[in-house]
Amino acid sequence: MGNWRKSSHSGPDDGNECVEIANSPTRVAVRDSKVPARAALTFPATAFAPFLEALKESAREL
Fold it and tell me: What's residue 28's pLDDT?
């Protein structure tokens, strides 16, 4: 997967507290921007939006 891009919530400076995502028509991949050579998590494109919503809900509960 190519065209990795950093989250708009990267943090200060060079965005050292960040994840990157790349997508294709069928998959979305997520990786740690500090160690991009490590494995990425991949999701079916249809599952990615519900995954993000679940993360947001968890963060609101903290």
Answer: 93
Contact at 8 Å (CB) between 44 and 26? yes
Cα gap 20→10, rounded to integer Å: 9
- In whole angstroms, what is the distance from residue 10 CA to residue 35 CA? 15
The mean pLDDT value for 37-53 works out to 91
pTM over 0.90: no
Strand order in the sheet with 27-32: 5-6, 19-23, 27-32, 41-44
Tokens standing for residue 58: 């968890």
